[in-house]
Amino acid sequence: MRIGQKLVCGFVSVALLVGVVGYVSVNTCQKTLQKTIGENSVTLAVETLDKIDRGIHNRIEVFCSYCKDLILQEATIKSNQEFQKLDNIQDYIDKKDKEWRAAGKEEITPFMQELINDRLSEELREKIEFYEEDHGYKVFGEIFVTNKYGANAAQTGKTTDYRQDDEEWWQRAEEDGLYIADVEYDRSAKVYSTDIGIRIDDENGNFSGVIKVVLNIEEVVNIIKEVEASAKYKTTQFKLLTKDGKLIYSTEDFEFFEDFSNELLSRFHKERPEEHLDYFIAEGDKPGEGDELFARAHSKGYKDYQGLGWILVIEHTTEEIFAPVAQLRNRLVIISLGVTVLAILMGFFISRAFSNPLMKLRDAAIEIGKGNLEARIEVKSNDEIGELASSFSNMSGKLKESHLELKESHKQLEVKVQQRTAELSSANEKLEEEIVGRSLIQKALEKRIKELNCLYGLSKLIEKQKIPLEQIFQEMPELIRKAYQYPDVTCARITFDGIQYKTDNFEKSEVSQYTQIKVRGDKAGAIEVYYLEEKPESGADPFLKEERDLLDALAERLGKITERKRAGEKLRLFRDLIERSNDCIFIIEPERGCFLDVNETSCGTLGYTREELLDMNIKDIDESVLDDSSWRECTKELKLKGDLVIQGQYKRKDGTIFFVETSLKLVSQENGERIIAIARDVTERMQAEEKLLQIQAAVDDATDAIMITDCDGKARYSNIAFGELFKHSSETINEAGIGSIFVDENVVKELSQTILGADSWKGEVQILSAKGRQFPALLRGTPITDEQSNVLGMLFIINDITELKEAEREQARLLEKVESANKELKDFAYIVSHDLKAPLRGVSTLANWISTDYADKLGEESKEQIDLLLTRVGRMHKLIDGVLQYSRVGRAKEEQIQVNLNELVEDVIDMVAPPGNIEITIEDELPVVECGQTRIIQVFQNLLSNAVKYMDKPQGRIKIGFVEEPGFWKFSVADNGPGIEEKHFERIFRIFQTLSPRDEFESTGVGLTVVKKIVELYGGRIWVESKLGEGSTFFFTLPKQKMGVKDAKLEANIIGRR
Amino acid sequence: MRNSKPILLVEDDRVDVMAVERALKDLKVTNPLAHLANGEEALEYLRGGSNKGPCVILLDLNTPKMNGFEFLKVVKADDVLKKIPVVVLTASKDERDIVESFKLGVGGYMVKSVDYKKFMETIRTIDVYWTLSELPNGE
Predict the structure, then answer these.
(1) Rounded to the nearest 10 degrees, what angle do helices A3-66 and A323-369 cross at?
(2) Tens digits of per-residue pLDDT, A5-14?
(3) Angle between helices A933-949 and A901-912 (to 10 degrees)
(4) What is the pLDDT of residue A1052?
């Protein structure tokens, strides 16, 4: 690109930059403006709606407070009372409603008229008029009131129905207190209205009717119109929509309830730039009008009025609102265009000033390039370009001079090259002569290399560490053949230890070479080499001297290799033996005790690697070597004796400890003394020994007599108890054997037969002691077997059961006694009930007859005596019954059932039937228990009737309490009666014990005894706490575990039914 | 009683017999009372052809020689005798006695009261019941 063009481009880009900056700033302005206007519009909409909600709320408020009006309250209450007198309210309302609707559209029946003329209706009309005068338009359309049955009670004009409780507003007002219907529009009257239903409550807050008001919401429109009038922009439009998007009001002409939900509301969802913004800019709803800005707000209600969810949308044409920005943009375009044109013109002129002298310079340079060194430039300016032109002219002059010098030196160089070529050709001839001489020497060298190859092959074979000797011998003949002068006709054989190794082509011939292989000086084999063809040069030695020397050297080598390999194998075998030994083997340096070598078993047993162990010291693993000094003592002793066996403990890497038996041996070697330690893990042996010792001790001290015999019954062992049982020393008893102790010798045969058949024998036998005492004993004999179940001997355990037998007999005797005593007791109870009572009854009957039959003959005193006689008979009777009852508690078997004590105790209270001045209460929720029902009734009945019987206060209080404690339930029966002195706390639970004189309180003294017996029968406890004069509390417990209901579901059921 | 057949009383205690007699008299029950001291004698009486079958048997359980249960077992095994209603009149309140008696098909179980007035009430109840209740007709 030419310099001129570059300059023009530069200027144009500057101009473009100005344009871009201008464009960006205009855009930023527009966005800011758009945001401000959008947010302002949303705020405007919110405020407007707020005003509307507040206006509606005020109207509702008027009527809510009106509901408390006295006249209104009276009228509804009166209407409700009248309706209550009716037989069938619904029929009445239906009938009236039918008549109501049957009337003509304009017709007003007398019934309606009556309602319209009502005092309340009058007042409501006045209210409507008041508001109309005050606001200049009809604020309330109509008002009517219903009673709580939904029938009209007052109305400002005729309503369509009489029955209102089927209307939604009525039901919702009854339920929620307030109902506001959505807006209605009367096109002809151009009136907006909404129905408001409010529940009327009487002063007690009970529902007593509903008031319905038709509210003209002209005000709403007025509010919007006011805002419209004060709008900043001429094109601004307002649209008020219901929550479903139905149009209520628009600045333009509009159709009421036109659906805008799709056209407008859904656009908000789609086109809002961000979720939290409530405005957007998009194409207007009328084509050709350009973009518009849409903003909206939702009605949120005011105070307790929740609003109807109205939506107010405000629209502005962007043309108007963004007019200032558009003006700015236009100016900017004009400025940037001007700057661009100016830049292009300036660029053009400046470039012309530069490019003319430069063109001349270029043309001159091209001339010089073509070889015309005469070229010169004429530039008359004094600036940098002028200087450049003059220095260019100087340069072309100097160029011409140096060109001539170059031509001269070229000619001199050509002469020198010719001289050098001649020298080189003579040297080449000498070199060719030398090469011919060298090839003769090479042939001799090749022979030597063959020999060396053979020896090298051998040494390579030996280098392989694990190569067996045999393989070396196998490969050797082939190596030898290749080392010879004529390998094709040479064959070789090695004989070693009677085995032959030979080349494939081996064949014996006349021409041969032979040498011996010696191992440790003894002949062990030989190497033979044969030529298969006789060579033409006969007479001379067919083999070269070098070949003979080679063979000897090989034989010697093989001998030595064999010696070394054999020694190495022995050593490895020995090493393997040590490594795989079951014992840990260490070589220890005597002074410091560090390990010089260890075998694999040591590593495995101790858990260290060989490397770790070799860094360690004997005291690191041996628990008995505490420090260096104790090791020194050990080595000192070892030096004295030469070898040692020590019992000790080693520690593994993981810290576990095991028992070892270590044998130490001191050996002298070339490089000083060494200790060889062989350690054996004896943990199992130690444990077994210890166990054995324990068993031995246990058996020795066992109270049972124990004897071990061989298969013939000869004693091998008997314990202390055995000796004591038979009053023998263990020597004599061991000599006599097991056979000597039985009374019946046949028993021995029977039991040894069983035991030797690998079975155990158990039974009672008669034993004869050394002193001649016979006694019964329990004998158990078991076989002692080895691992193959061969019987090695017999084990006998003998228990003297003399005392046991006696105890058994004693027990049987006692049991029999108890049983008979028990039976006697039962019989006694029966006798008591029948036989003791019979004469008593006779006495009673006869005394009765005497007092009635001889009433006129008996004096007062005799009558009193007979009465006393009769009360004593009665008392005797009760005593007998008490005894019977007491004896029956433990005897009678009763079915255990689940009893809900809450119900049962209520029944018991009824049974006890306390007099009016005594109150019995259950204080706590009682549990469900599993027990005999009669018994638990007896417990509560006795405790409660005692409390009632002895009550001495005018106001008696008896409380039944219950506490759940760990493991048991605790019940209490507390009274405020006379109380009991502490010294009697025990006595009262004894049978026939009473504290009051019998004549004062008829008491047998059995009740508490029976209660105690029952509670104790269940494993519970009973006691009393009391303070004289203040009352007593009887406590008793029942165990939860024994009496708890196991089935939780069932319990839940029972509790559920309480 | 529904008819004028005799009432058979099996009872060994003389005072109790007197009490029954006196109660029947006080209650103006006109049926004759046949009194026997134990089960054996009662069976003899029942099986003796000359006697008129009783309308009801009042039976004490605790009688010598043959007690009430033994007597009942025999009576209930006999096709003719088992038609006669038996009411146990005893001093025992023992549950086992009550259960055993009803197992042997008694028509009632009455406990003798120590108090004569109560005893009389018992007899009155027996009389009222067996006056209202139908009885098997014939022999």
Answers:
(1) 160
(2) 777 788 778 8
(3) 40
(4) 46
Decide if A840 and B18 are in contact by the 8 Å CB cutoff. no
Q: Are strands A140-147 and A207-216 parallel, antiparallel or unpaired?
A: antiparallel
Among candidates A271, A332, A318, which has minimal Cα distance to A296?
A271
Strand order in the sheet with A1031-1039: A918-922, A956-965, A968-975, A1031-1039, A1022-1027
Subunit contact A830:B114, Cβ cutoff 8 A: no
Which residues of chain A lie closer than 8 angstroms to B18, CB-CB? Answer: 845
Query: Which strands make up the sheet holding A643-651, listed edge to edge?
Result: A595-598, A584-588, A672-681, A657-669, A643-651
A208, A148 Cβ separation under 8 angstroms: yes
CB atoms within 10 A of CB A520: 10
Look at residue A734 and tell me if it is in a domain.
yes
Q: Which residue has the tokens 């090259």?
A: A417
Task: With CA atoms as reference, report the closest residue to A765 among A785, A734, A741.
Answer: A741
Top-confidence range, A68-72, A191-195, A251-255, A1029-1033 = A1029-1033
> Residues 3 to 42 of B: which have CB under 8 A from any A CB?
13, 15-16, 18-19, 22
From B91, which residue of chain A is nearest by alpha-carbon distance?
A: A834
Quote the domain boundaries for residue A788: 702-800
Report the residue of A834, A835, A895 to disrupt the B interface, i.e. the one with the largest count of B CBs within 10 Å. A834
| CB atoms inside a 10 Å sphere around CB A323 | 12
pLDDT in tens, A261-281: 777 777 777 777 777 778 888
Q: For residue A457, is it left (φ>0), alpha (ψ between -120 and 50) or beta?
A: alpha
Of B90, B93, B114, the CB nearest to A874: B114
**Where does B7-130 sit in CATH, by number?**
3.40.50.2300
Report if residue A255 sits inside a domain: no
Take residue A136 and report the two structure tokens written for it. Answer: 């200049």
Same domain membership, residue A806 and residue A795: no
B74 inside 8 A of chain A by CB = no
Q: Which amino acid does the sequence have at A635? A: T
Same domain flag for A140 and A202: yes
Question: Which residue from A minimizes the CA distance to B119?
Answer: A845
Give backbone dihedrals phi and psi of A479, rounded to 5 degrees, phi first.
Answer: -60, -40
Cα–Cα distance measured from residue A665 to residue A542, given in angstroms and rounded to the nearest whole number:
64
Strand partners, B57: B8, B86
Q: Which residue of B has its CA nearest to A871?
A: B115
Q: Which of A175, A216, A218, A219 is nearest to A197 (CA)?
A: A175
Q: What share of chain A is helix, strand, coil (3-state, %, to 5)?
A: 55, 20, 25
| Residue A905 exposure: Cα atoms within 13 Å on the Cβ side | 26
**B95 contacts chain A (CB < 8 A):** yes
Show the CA angle centred on residue A519, arms to residues A513 and A520, nearest 5°: 135
Whether residue A745 contacts residue A787, with contact meaning beta carbons closer than 8 Å, is answered with no
Alpha helices in A378-468 (DSSP H): 384-463
Please tell me if residue B62 touches chain A, with a CB cutoff of 8 Å. yes
Same domain for A507 and A543, yes or no, is yes
pTM of the model: 0.34
Say which residue the tokens 């006795």 belong to: A942
Classify residue A438: in a domain, yes or no: no
Query: For the segment B106-130, what is each residue's pLDDT rounded down to a tens digit?
Result: 989 998 887 788 888 888 988 888 8
Do A204 and A76 fall within a single domain?
Answer: yes
Residue B19 to residue A897: CA distance in whole angstroms: 43
pLDDT digits (tens, 9 = 90+) for B1-35: 777 788 899 988 888 888 888 888 888 888 888 88
Are residues A939 and A809 part of one domain?
A: no
Question: B56-59 and B7-10 as β-strands: parallel, antiparallel, unpaired?
Answer: parallel
A156 Cβ contact list (under 8 Å, min separation 6): A116, A121, A124, A125, A128, A142, A143, A144
